[in-house]
Amino acid sequence: MKKLMLLLGLILSMNTFAVSDFCKGFGTGYITGYKQASGSSFDPFVPFCPFQPAKGFNDPDSDYEHGYIIGYEKGKKEG
Length: 79
What we know:
Layout: H1 2-18, H2 21-38, H3 63-78
């Protein structure tokens, strides 16, 4: 029973990571890139947020901006 409660707590705590600044930026960037590439005015279905990759030298300091850039590129590719 304790293992089940621990597992349930772990799963529920994963939702807090999904609402990170990186994921918010990813969603906004994906929508912008998709609309620009497809010419549509409707918001597309945003895919699940990927794990945040390690930042390189040219990446912005802000997690939101980092997510926005990655989401924008993916949305533009799929639009």
